[in-house]
Design brief:
alpha+beta, nine-stranded mixed beta sheet
Length: 647
């Protein structure tokens, strides 16, 4: 009896101890599936919170008649739409959903309502909704099913808008017209073949559409559709290969359009195209960088274009009559996006960020050149002294090609050689820019880990030859660029070549997995986020509207020679070479890189006896967007680094 009492007391003490331990830990929420992740203390969570509470704001839409804008920002779990009616005014929230809302368009005459897009759980099947700005009630406009709907372009009189949708068969992105006050009026106006089609502009009389056909990062075309005769005609030559032709808009001149193109040049230039003579005139040839976009004023007399100059943006103002332009210089050095003129053409709203600040919205007075800040996003407890600033670095790859990236040093308070996190972007035609680190400042300022964001071959921003250097059978050349970066790190006196972690998302996830087996003896651990583990299974299972677009980049697995090559290079077939710990992170609803890419890699590594951590979110897709999930992922990655990079 005495022994029984002692056993019961021991059980009670043990249970209480377990309960106390659980009380001191951060536990995954009900939407997270976790395997092998080490305990995460609330003490760590509190320490990280200094870096995790920043937010940004981005321009979404400008009211057609009032001095007010719609922005996207987050105060709760996800980004939602907010109204701002004056500089640094209150951000009044107008959508309240569990899922993020990042884009919207005003009805163009009175602005009484918005059209916005929203998906479910990151599945990217965006549905269109009408938001009444008086009642804040939303009405579903599209089918609510497994279709993608977007690319809204209004008729100028507000009688309706054109949009693209995959609803016909899930793969082809057709063009429709809808009066949002009568959703049943939606009608198919142009049936196409392929998932890369989209509306770029509507003529002032609403009778003609400029339509883009995206084939790959190296090839795109522009078409003209007459809504009365239902005829689709080529503007650019469909037989032209390896030429980018984007962002078409009608000019104020009859028979002329604006667009950007890398025709006869390494970089994309701002140009006009004469619809009668087919003559192309270029306007930015003296700028040896990509023109990445532009915006025309309502009366088409002014144009602002954006360049990407070595990972930083510059903006230029052009008079469309004289075609003369000048750089707008009284703005902070950084990154720009979301540009739009007010309807009267007097002001330009834009989104801007720097290495020391998250994104915010500004208004530029085009007459006085005065810039006015409209939002001021909080950075939590982070101070400028806590932030690492980017430095441009270069190294030479195996074939003498120059590769570059941005290096964020560890805080100077740490002594000795510093561990390195190599973070590889996706795309593969993405680009790492000189951007704000945000919560990643925790790595540099609290853990003493330096970060390098490489732009391996295949990245955009460095010319059309560079972006094509990883296509098809050249795929592994980009992995060799990381090998050369490892050589560069070994030569740096302040970096530790024996403490390197690779991390990347999407295509960067593939690069992470490929580096893990190609350079197994040179990396300590890896974090694969929504990465491709086998190109053949990826191409089989990715959503239909993406499949042909991805085949142009990665290769057509239906061809026997390409199938065999993709099998050879796929990380799933090289797991025997992976020796170091791996953390795999995935969204269940990912339409781009299906969850099976993650689970098959996890299972094979586990069966081999490898150390594998696994995190899956049931309410996410191609990357995490909900704050609770993002926060847990961040903490889990930090614990992984503590266990396998820093020890």
């Amino acid at each position: 009896m005495k022994l029984l009492k002692i056993s019961i007391i021991a059980l009670i003490i043990g249970f209480n101890g377990f309960a106390q331990d659980q009380k001191n830990l951060v536990l995954p929420n009900e939407n997270l599936i976790t395997e092998n992740i080490a305990p995460i203390s609330k003490e760590l969570s509190q320490k990280v919170k200094k870096y995790s509470e920043s937010r940004g704001a981005s321009l979404v839409a400008i009211h057609p008649t009032k001095n007010e804008i719609i922005i996207g920002t987050r105060f709760g779990s996800t980004n939602q739409l907010h109204k701002v009616i004056q500089p640094l005014g209150a951000r009044k929230q107008i959508t309240f959903f569990e899922e993020p809302v990042n884009n919207a368009s005003y009805e163009p005459t009175k602005g009484d309502y918005l059209i916005y897009s929203k998906d479910i759980g990151g599945n990217e099947f965006g549905q269109l909704y009408k938001l009444d700005l008086k009642t804040l009630q939303s009405t579903l406009l599209t089918d609510g099913g497994r279709s993608q709907n977007g690319g809204i372009n209004w008729k100028k009189d507000g009688s309706g808008f054109y949009f693209s949708s995959t609803k016909r068969n899930g793969g082809d992105r057709d063009i429709y017209f809808m009066n949002p006050n009568d959703p049943k009026s939606a009608k198919l106006v142009l049936e196409v073949k392929g998932g890369g089609w989209g509306i770029q502009d509507v003529s002032d009389n609403g009778k003609k559409l400029l339509i883009g056909e995206y084939v790959s990062a190296n090839e795109s075309h522009i078409w003209l559709f007459d809504t009365e005769t239902k005829t689709l005609s080529e503007i650019t030559n469909r037989k032209d290969k390896s030429i980018v032709q984007l962002d078409a808009e009608f000019s104020k001149n009859d028979n002329e359009i604006w667009f950007t193109t890398d025709r006869e040049n390494e970089f994309q230039r701002l140009a006009t195209f004469n619809l009668q003579t087919k003559a192309v005139t270029y306007f930015s040839s003296t700028i040896s960088w990509n023109v990445e976009g532009y915006v025309l004023s309502e009366d088409k007399t002014n144009l602002v274009f954006l360049t990407n100059e070595g990972g930083l943006n510059k903006i230029y103002l052009m008079d469309t009559t004289t075609k003369k332009y000048k750089e707008i210089k009284n703005v902070p050095v950084g990154l720009f996006g979301g540009m739009s003129f007010t309807k009267d053409g007097k002001y330009l709203f834009l989104t801007q960020s720097t290495a020391e600040s998250s994104s915010d919205v500004y208004r530029l007075d085009l007459k006085t050149n005065k810039i006015e800040q409209w939002t001021e996003s909080e950075l939590g407890e982070m101070q400028k002294a806590d932030m690492s600033k980017p430095k441009l670095i270069e190294w030479t790859s195996f074939d003498k090609l120059k590769i570059s990236g941005f290096y964020y040093p560890a805080s100077s308070k740490f002594i000795g050689k510093r561990p390195v996190l190599i973070n590889i972007h996706g795309g593969p035609e993405g680009q790492s820019m000189a951007s704000f680190l945000g919560s990643n400042n925790y790595y540099t300022n609290e853990m003493g880990v330096a970060i390098i964001y490489p732009n391996v071959r295949g990245s955009s921003g460095f010319g059309k030859t560079f972006i094509a250097k990883d296509n098809g059978f050249l795929r592994e050349d980009s992995v060799k660029d990381i090998g050369s970066l490892l050589d560069w790190i070994a030569q740096q006196p302040d970096l530790d070549k024996d403490k390197i972690m690779i991390m990347g998302g999407s295509y960067g996830g593939y690069m992470t997995l490929a580096t893990a087996f190609h350079f197994a003896d040179r990396v300590k651990c890896s974090v694969d986020i929504v990465g491709i583990s086998n190109f053949n299974t990826f191409l089989k299972n990715t959503e239909e509207y993406r499949r042909d677009l991805r085949r142009v980049e990665y290769g057509d697995e239906r061809e026997a020679k390409m199938y065999a090559f993709l099998e050879i290079i796929s990380p799933l077939n090289n797991t025997d070479k992976i020796k170091k710990p791996m953390f795999i992170i995935q969204g269940t609803n990912d339409p781009r890189v299906p969850v099976t890419e993650a689970t098959q890699m996890r299972d094979k590594l586990k069966n081999q006896g490898n150390t594998v951590w696994y995190l899956e979110a049931k309410d996410e897709g191609h990357g995490f967007r909900k704050k609770a999930n993002v926060d847990y992922q961040r903490l889990a990655v930090i614990r992984f680094m503590e266990e396998y990079l820093l020890k």
